[in-house]
Design a protein that fits this description.
The protein has 474 residues and is of the alpha/beta class. Helices cover 38% and strands 20% of the residues. α7 packs parallel to α8 and α9 crosses α11. The termini are far apart. The model has no long low-confidence stretch (mean pLDDT 97). The structure holds nicotinamide-adenine-dinucleotide. Nicotinamide-adenine-dinucleotide binds next to α7 and α8.
Length: 474
């Protein structure tokens, strides 16, 4: 164990946790534990929530002006940017995402804090409507529960709007990526954000559940699996606690018959299996017209053949391990199901022969897949793509929409107007044309089992705001 023990971040400093139980933090490239974190218990969750409630007081954070809070968000972005090398180095060891891909996580976080800081300049916290004054107040103490695949970015999507509106927060990072949450808390303090506004409690699902259940938490912002999202939504429903959920996906790339396959090949890794397929918007279904089937499979195989799999700390590596043993085993289970149900492995389908340590898996292409097969229905969260043939455009849209999920998606065509017609028909929260990249100023989220509510853009501020109408007597 060579990293500092991380305990709680509460009242503006690191403090020992009450919980005796600890979870190991494992480097997925070496399979070695290099740190441990507390599995936060009832006493720990009580403390962080109390700290956030005290900081929320009228004389505290919610009493500051939007301008002051926006200025602090700008400073937080600056401090995070300055400390990004440290965050990147730590993150590589925690989640195994290659060092060349890691900056995206910090840059998206920095960009999000700046975006909401800028939004503060034009955000009207009070609006006069005739003899009524509409006041926009912070919703209160926010419980932020984040996953491991983009830990800084996905926390920022919740914390930045929450802080701008005057909320305080408890962050419960994923157990795999808890250590960099303490760097964020340090950065917030350095940026002048008062003690107690951001608190951190570590642990797994049990700690997350304690946060969801806590009566001192007024709202939950969650990113993670649809299974956990459903459990959280049930509890929030019973407590009438507002909740935003960003969940899983099984998004489709629709290759139209006029698509430029060079464009598809150039962007295939980023669109279909970013971060070893561990991104919720991964386009793990590739829908192709029968006549282009062989060319599209060849394009995918050739793009995946060029990936450099290995040590994520090396600047040469473009694909690291998956995050954990359980994730590797899950992928192997899905690949076995694909074979069993009659799909053909066109590439990969096994662990790399030359790597005997680490949770590595070959980028994998299945063809002869039908949309009803397990590999086409369920989120694998690994580097596995299914190529599915369609008869005509109508069939392509029907296949794309025949999914319990609706988060991302991409339409490939030489004709952007034609692509747009198809994009409008896809049941999804977001869709790209000839590529996919998330814009911080536009709402992001899912339909169906992919989530509830939206993050980012002006829309992402609303879940953290409570409206109060004050009627002046005429
Ligand atoms: P997960 O749902 O197991 O865990 C996510 C977070 O929730 C962790 O911090 C975990 O400790 C916590 N958690 C788990 N169960 C909980 C419960 N019952 N109550 C409270 N907290 C709980 O997911 P994971 O395996 O860490 O992440 C991968 C999943 O997240 C994938 O399914 C992926 O699609 C999804 N994801 C979605 C988005 C998005 O923006 N929609 C982004 C990244 C990941």
């Amino acid at each position: 164990m060579d990293a500092d023990l991380a305990d709680l971040f509460v009242d503006g400093r690191r403090q020992p946790a009450h919980a005796a139980d600890r979870l190991a933090v494992i480097d997925p490239a070496s399979e070695q534990a290099f740190a441990e974190i507390p599995a936060g218990d009832v006493a720990d969750v009580d403390r962080v929530v109390a700290s956030a409630r005290t900081a929320l007081a009228d004389a505290g954070w919610r009493g500051t002006s939007v301008g002051d809070r926006a200025a602090m968000l700008h400073r937080l972005a600056d401090v995070l940017e300055k400390r990004s090398p440290e965050i990147i180095e730590l993150s590589v060891r925690q989640n195994g995402i290659p060092v060349v891909s890691q900056p995206a996580n910090v840059q998206a976080a920095v960009g999000t804090y700046r975006y909401y800081a800028d939004l503060g300049a034009t955000w009207e916290v009070e609006e006069r409507r005739g003899s009524t004054l509409v006041c926009k107040e912070p919703i209160g103490v926010v419980g932020v529960i984040a996953p491991w695949n983009g830990p800084q970015a996905l926390a920022a999507w919740k914390l930045a709007p929450a802080f701008l509106s005057g909320c305080t927060a408890v962050l419960k990072p994923a157990p795999e990526t808890s250590l960099d949450a303490f760097l964020l808390a340090d950065a917030a303090l350095e940026a002048g954000i008062p003690p107690g506004v951001l608190n951190v409690v570590t642990g797994g699902s049990a700690t997350g559940a304690l946060l969801v259940d806590h009566p001192g938490v007024d709202k939950i912002g969650f990113t993670g699996s649809s299974a956990a999202g459903r459990l959280i939504a049930e509890k929030c429903g019973a407590a009438l606690k507002p909740v935003t959920l960003e969940l899983g996906g099984k998004s489709a790339s629709i290759i139209l018959d006029d698509a430029d396959l060079d464009v598809f090949e150039a962007t295939a890794v980023r669109v279909c299996i970013p971060n070893s397929g561990q991104v919720c918007t991964s386009n793990t279904r590739v829908l192709v017209p029968s006549r282009l089937h062989d060319d599209v499979v060849a394009a995918l195989v050739s793009a995946f053949d060029r990936m450099v799999i290995g040590d994520p700390a090396s600047a040469e590596t473009t694909m690291g391990p998956v995050v954990a043993q359980r994730q590797l085993e899950r992928i192997e289970g899905f690949v076995a199901a694909g074979r069993h149900e009659g799909a053909r492995v066109a590439r990969g389908g096994r662990r790399p022969a030359d790597l005997d340590r680490g949770f590595f898996y070959e980028p994998t292409v299945f063809d002869h897949v039908s949309n009803e097969m397990t590999i086409a229905r369920e989120e694998i969260f690994g580097p596995v793509v299914s190529v599915i043939e369609y008869a005509d455009e109508e069939d392509a849209v029907a296949l794309a929409n025949a999914s319990e999920y609706g988060l991302g998606g991409t339409v490939f065509s030489r004709d952007p107007d034609r692509a747009m017609v198809v994009a409008r028909r896809v049941e999804t929260g977001t869709v790209g044309i000839n590529g996919y990249s998330i814009a911080l100023d536009a709402p992001f989220g899912g339909v169906k089992s992919s989530g509830l509510g939206r993050e980012l853009g002006p829309e992402g501020l609303q879940p953290y705001v409570q409206h109060k109408s004050v009627y002046y007597a005429p």
